[in-house]
Amino acid sequence: MDLVEVSPNAEPPVCKIMDYGKYRYKQSKKLHDAKKSQTVVHVKEIRLRPKTEEHDIQVKIKHIKKFLEQHDKVKISMVFRGREISFTEIGKKLMEQIRAQLIEHCVVDQEPRLEGRSMVMIVSPKKNK
Description:
The protein has about 130 residues and is of the alpha+beta class. It has helices at about 20-35, 55-70, 90-100, and strands at about 1-5, 15-20, 45-50, 75-80, 105-115, 120-125. The protein folds into 2 domains: about 1-35; about 45-125, Translation Initiation Factor IF3 (2-Layer Sandwich). The chain is built from 3 helices and 6 strands. The strands form 2 sheets. Strands 3-4-6-5 form a 4-stranded mixed sheet, covered by helices on one side.
């Protein structure tokens, strides 16, 4: 048995007689169980261009749905190259079309926003109740 100081800041300090090895073992087991039950959220990225054809967009949407089913967040990036940057409204319209098709599967965390030469939208899966 060991004399363990439980609360050093209390007035007077609180001490307890216990088996310190057993206490540390229980603490490590509690920490291990907490780690086991937590979920890690990954951010997957899908990259598009403004000139991406309709069938290719449908394939990308299918990939996004698969990522959302795996409880991952998805970052949808519309990359503008060269003079395409002057036609950001085309990219905005394409992002809105994608959001309309995904509305029952996800929640939009970040609206489509221009960041440098790319437009970014972040979506996450809906919470199951």
